[in-house]
Fold these 4 entries.
Entry 1:
Amino acid sequence: MKSLSSYLGGRWIEGTGTPQVLVNPATEEPLAQASSDGIDLAAALDYARRVGGPALRALSFAERGALLKGMAQAMQAHRDELLDLAVANGGNTRSDGKFDLEGAIFTLTTYAEIGERLGAAKFLIDGEGVQLGRSPRFHGQHVCVPRAGVAVHVNAFNFPAWGLAEKAAAALLAGMPVLCKPATSSAMVAHRIMEILAQEKILPEGALSLLVGSPRDLASLLGGQDVLAFTGSGDTGARIRALRNVLVESVRVNVEADSLNAAVLGPDVEPGSDMYELFLKDVQRDMTQKAGQKCTAIRRVIVPAALAAGVREDLAGLLGAVRVGNPALSEVRMGPLATAAQLADAREGVERLVAEGKLAFGSAAPCAGAGVAAGKGYFISPVLVEFAAGASGDAVHTREVFAPVASLLPYSGEAAEGAAMVARGAGGLVSSLYSDDAAWIEAAVFGIAPYNGRIYLGHPKIELSPGPGTVLPQLVHGGPGRAGGGEELGGERALAFYLQRVALEGSRPVIQKLLGTQAV
Ligand code: NAP
C-alpha cells in the first residue's frame, strides 16, 4: 500500500506511528496510508516563513502570477491521472472529479491573469493619497504589503484539488508561502498535485508545503504574522478560533463552514416554463453532484404552497433517474459519500429531518451501489424530505446534512415570508432565487442579502449557467453566521487576507518617491 509522505521543509517526510488508512469509498478497498506523527511541524512552518516568504516577496505580482499559470499547466498536463485518483479515493464520478480539477485550474488561471494585470508591483497601493494638514506636504497613503508569516490552509475532504488551488492562488499571488493540509480521507489528489509541482520545480523553495495526516497541534503553532484559512465543519472552526495563540497573538483566521443554502421559487413561475425547468435542474444537480457533498449545495427548497406537490413529483422523477454506484462505471451518475463517518452522520441527519417532516423520496436505509459487492461502500440514495406548510421545524433550518439530501418547504409566495425562511438558516454561502417578477426579486434579494455570501438569480436566458453550486473565482465565497463569517476569492479582494494594510504618514515627496507615485 502506498504511504503518503508530507512535503515539508523542502523534502518528503514520512510520519511514524499508526497510519490512517485511505480507502476507495465505493469498494472500501484500502488505497494508501498516511501519518503525521513525529513530524516537526514547528520546523516546517519556520522553513516556509524563512525560505518561501522572502522568495515570494522578491517577485512582482506578474511573476507570482506566472507561477500560478505554471501550476495550472502542470495540473492540466496530469489531468487524467488526477481524475483517476479522484474517482478511486474521492468516490467521485469522472464528472465530479472534473468539477474539482477544472475548477482548480480555472481559479489558478484567473489569479494568474490578475497577477499579470497588477504587473511589476510587489505590494498594493490602497486608494488615493490624502492631504493631512493645511499644507499639502503633510501626506498620508495606505499600502498593503505581504505578511511576513506563513499561510496555513486546512481543507475539507470534498474538494482536494480546488481547495488547495483556490486558497493557494490568493496567498501565493499576495506573496505569502503556503502550508496546505488536505483532509486525510481524500488526500491522494492533493498529494499527487504536490508531487507534480515539486518534481517539476514549478514554485520557489518553501513556497508550498503539504502536510498529510492529522493536523495535530498545527494551528497552535501560528503567530501574529501567520494566517489560517479553514474549510470544514463549524465545530472544528470554532475550536480553532478559540485557541489561545489565535486569541492572544491575533492570528488572522478565515472560516468556511456549514451552510443550509436555500433555493426559493417565485410565485410567478409556471410549472413547465423554462424558469421552472431551470429551477428543477439546479436542485437536482446540487443534490446529486459529488453526492451532495458540496458546501454550496441546495439544502432547502422553498416553493409556493400551491406548487409544492408538483415540485415534489417532478423532483422525485429526476432523482429516481440518478444511478447510484461505483463511480468508475460510466453509467453511474452518483458515487458514495467520502467516508463511513460521513455516511453515519448523513443517516442521523436524515432521521432528524424525518422526525419533523416526511420522506418524499429515498431514505436513510442502506443503499446498494451498482457495480460493487453487496454491503460494500458508503452509499446513500438521494433523499427529499417534505414539510407541511407552516411547519416550524428546527432541524430543517439548523442541521446541514452533508449528503444528497434536501428539504422541500412550502411558503405563501410572499417574498418577505420566503426571505424569513432563508434567514432561519442563520447565515449561508449562497441562496438562489427563481422569478421573473422584478418587484418580487427586489424584495427577496434585499430580504436575504444580509444572510448570504452570494445570491444566484436563476434565469433560463443565461447560457451555460453553472447554477448556484459552482463557486466562481471572480465572486466572493463565504458567508455570515453559520457559514463561518469568512470570505475567500472575489478576484483581487482575496489578496486582502494575506496583506497587511499600513498607513504611511509623512512628507508627500518622500512618500511619493518611496512608492513611485509622484505625478509626472
Ligand atoms: P472537519 O472534521 O472539520 O475537517 C475539516 C479539515 O479540518 C480536515 O482537513 C481535518 O483534518 C481538519 N481538522 C480537523 N480537526 C482539526 C484541528 N483541530 N485543527 C486543524 N485542522 C483540523 O470537517 P469534516 O467533517 O471532514 O468536513 C465536512 C464538513 O465541512 C461538512 O459538514 C461541511 O459543513 C463543511 N464544509 C464546508 C465547506 C465550505 O466551503 N464552507 C466546504 C466543504 C465542507 P483531518 O481530515 O485530518 O481530520
Note: The first strand starts at residue 2 and ends at 4.
Entry 2:
Amino acid sequence: MGKVDILISEVGPRDGLQSITNIMPTAAKKQWISALAAAGIREIEVGSFVPASVLPQLADTAEIVAHGLTIEGLQIAVLVPNLRGAENAIASGAHKISIPLSVSETHSLRNVKRTHAQMLEEIARIAELVNSQPAHKRPHFEVGLSTAFGCSLEGPVSESLVVQLAEASLKAGCHEVGLSDTTGSANPAQLRRLIDKVWSAVGRDKLTGVHLHNTRGQGLANALAAIDMGITTVDASMGGIGGCPAAPGASGNIVTEDLVFMVEAMGLKTGVNFNALCAARELFAAAMPNTELYGFTPMSGLPKGMEIN
Ligand code: ZN
C-alpha cells in the first residue's frame, strides 16, 4: 500500500448507522466494510461499544470488529462512551478507541449522562487501562471534542473551553484529541482559528484529525480549511449517512465520495479507488434500500478523462 496524504476515516458504519432505525444485518455490514476496504479506505470506525438496549443497530460491534481485523492493513476504530465500553473495545482487539467529550456540558449530559469533571475522570481511568496494555495490544486512544464548534442545545461554545478540555484530556492520559463539529455549525474561519489555538496549546502532533457534519452544507469547505492548515485525517461517511441521536437537528457526515474527489482533484492521495467506492455504495443501497444516500460526485460521475485509483 502506498503512502496517503490524507487519511479518510470512514465513519458510516458507526456515525452513519447509529441514527438509522432499520437494523442493517450483520452479514451485510461485513460485506460493506470489506467493500470499503477493497476500495482503499484505510481506517473504518466500525461501531460503538454501547449497551445494545441504547443502540440496537450497533449491538454486533464485537463481531464486526473481529471481521474487520481479518482485513489486512485496515485500521479498526470504535467509539466508547465509558470505561466499560473501553474494556470491551480492548478485548475486541480494535486498533483505535475514541470517546466523545462534549464541550457543551448540556450535550454531554444528554449523550453520556456525565459532566465534564466526570468525563475527565472516566478518560483518566480508560487511559490507565489502555496504557497498561502490552505495546502490541495497546490501542490508540483519542478524545473527540464534540460540539466543539457550537451546540444545538447550548448555542455558541467557548473556544477557550475547547482548548482547556483538549489540555485536560491529554493530561488525563489520552494520546490525541480530535475536533468534532457534531451539529454542523462550523465555518472555515472557525476551523482555522480553533485548530491553531489547540495546536498552540498542545502541539500539532496531538491534533491531527477533524470530524465534520454537513448539516448546513459547509462540510467540504470546512474539510478544505482543515487540510490547508495541515490536518491529515478527515472523518467522512459514505453516502453522507449519519447524525447524532442526542443532538437535535444534526444531519449526516461529510460525504466520503465527494471528499475523495476534492482531495484527489487537488493532487493529494487518499489511496481510494473511486469506482470501487461506488461499488461499496451500491452494495449498501441494496442492503438498506430505505436509507437516503447523498453526494454529488456519485450522481454526476468523475469529470471526463479523470480517474481516481
Ligand atoms: Zn458525528
Note: The pocket of zinc ion is lined by residues 15, 182, 211, 213, 244, 253 (CB under 6 Å).
Entry 3:
Amino acid sequence: MSRKIVVLAGDGVGPEVSAQAVRVLETVSDKANLDLEFEPALLGGAAIDAVGSPLPDETLAACRAASAVFLGAVGGPKWDTVPVEIRPEVGLLGLRKELGLFANLRPVKTIPSLVEASPLKNERLAGVDIVVVRELTGGIYFGKRSRSADEAFDTCEYTVGEIERVCRAAAVLARGRRGRITSIDKFNVLDTSRLWRETASRVFRAEFPDLEVEHLLVDAAAMHLLSRPADFDVMVTENMFGDILTDEASMLAGSMGLLPSASLGDGGPGLYEPIHGSAPDIAGRNAANPCGAILSAALLLRHSCGADDAASAVEAAVDAVLADGIRTRDIAAPGQTAVGTAEFGQAVVERLAL
Ligand code: NAD
C-alpha cells in the first residue's frame, strides 16, 4: 500500500530545500520499494497569497489523511504587515496543535568533518550525539495571557497527562539509544516544574527502570550543554526551556542549515522540518544548505515509515558528501568554492547506498 507524504514547501528557501529532500525520498522509495507518494499543499505565506489563510482547510485535511508531513519553512518580510491572526507562523502553530504533535525531537550530532564550523573547542565536540525532546503543545506559549499599557502576564500550565506522554516518548527513544535520559526543569522555583519532576521521576522509575536518569535545573543544563555535551543522550523538557536549549544545542553542530527535527503525536502523522526558518536573505539563489531538510527526510523514514535502514542510509550519504569536502556556502571554509542547494542534493543522491 502506498504511503502519502504531504509536502508543504512554504516560503523563502523552503521550496528549495524541500525539493532536495523530496528528491532524496523519491530515490529511497524507488530503491527500497517504499511506495511513497507525494502531495504538495499550501502553508504559511504561500497559502496567504493564494487563498488568504496561512492554514487552509484543504491543507489540514490532506495532512490529517497523510502518513507524514514534510515542511520546508514559513514566513518572511513580505507577510510582516498582515494581521497578526493570519501571520504565516500562525499556520504552523495551528498545524502542530491540530495534529496533536506534542513531542518535538531535535537530534544534534557533530559531524567529524565539520567540527571547525562550531564555535566550540574541537575536543569538547568529539562524540556529541544528543536528541532534545521538547514538549510542544503546552506550557507558557499556550497559557492564559493579558496585556495592558503598564502590565502584562503569561501563564505556564501543565497537566500530569501532558508531562507523562512526552516523558514516555523520550524514554522510549533513550531505550533505543544509549539508555540515558536527562529531564530538565526549574524545580527549585516553579510549581509546574515540581509537577514535572515528580511526574517524570515516577514514569521513569515505574516504566523505565533500565534507564540511567538525571534531573537538571534548566540554568545548570544550559551550562552543562556547553561544558560536557558528549555526556548527554536524550534530554526532555517543557516547551519554553526546550525552545531555548535547542537553539543553544544547534551551535554544537555549527550551522542552522544542518539540523533536522521531527514533531510526533499519538500515532497520527508526524511533521518533519529543518530547524531553520525561511532565510529570506539567501532565498531564490540556490544557496541554502539542504542538510537539515534531507536529514529531516531521514527522520520521516525512521519514525513514520518504519524504514530504519533507509533512514540510516540517508544519514550516511549526507556524512559521505561532507567527508568528501562538498560544502554549501554557510559551511565552506574561507576561500573554498561552495556548491549550490541542488548540487548538494544531487551529491547526496549519488552516495545513497541501498
Ligand atoms: P532563519 O533561520 O530563516 O535565518 C537565520 C540565519 O541563518 C540567516 O542568516 C539565514 O541565511 C541562515 N540560514 C537559515 N537557514 C539556512 C540554510 N538552510 N542554509 C544556509 N543558511 C541558512 O531565521 P530568521 O532570519 O530569524 O527568520 C526568517 C523568517 O523565517 C522569519 O519570517 C521567521 O518568522 C521565519 N521562521 C520560520 C520557521 C519555520 O518555518 N519553522 C522557523 C524560524 C523562523
Note: The domain at 119-253 is CATH 3.40.718.10 (Isopropylmalate Dehydrogenase).
Entry 4:
Amino acid sequence: MSRLVYILNGPNLNLLGKRQPEIYGHVTLADVEAECRALASELKLEIKFYQSNREYEVIDWIHAAREDAAGIVINPAAFTHTSLAILDALNTFEGAVIEVHISNVHKREAFRHHSYVSLRADGVIAGCGTQGYALGLRRAGQIIDGKAA
Ligand code: DQA
C-alpha cells in the first residue's frame, strides 16, 4: 500500500516569502518543503513536492499520482478559482485530496470565494498560513491510515 503523498503548488507560489508578504508571510516554499519532509518522515510518509506556473504540469502530476500515490495535498493558487481541468484531473484520483490555502480566501475578494477544487477535496484548510501544509499532510496521513475521525 502506497504511503506517498504529492504536495502540489500552483502559480506564483515559487515567490512565496517575497510575494505580498503582508498576505502570504515571509516563509519560502523551500522552507515549507523542508517542514513537510520532516513531518513526512515522522509520519512514515513519502512525499513528492512540486510547484509550477503551468496548469498542464499540475494536471500531469495529478495523473502521475494516480499511478503511485495515496494522497494529494494541493494549493492550486489562482487555478483554484478558474480550473475545471484541475478539478477533472482530481476527480480521476482515488486517494485523499486536501486543498490548502495560505490566506483565508473567504476574507478576501469575492472571486476567491469559489473553488472548483473544493468540489473534490476531502478537506480544505485556509487562513492558517504556511502551517496549513503540515496540517494538510497530517490529515492526508490520517485518511491513508484509516484514522480520520
Ligand atoms: C492562495 C489563494 C489564491 O486565491 C491565490 O490566487 C494564491 C494563493 C493561498 O494560498 O492563499 O495564489 O491559494
Note: Helices lie at 21-24, 29-43, 55-68, 84-90, 131-144.
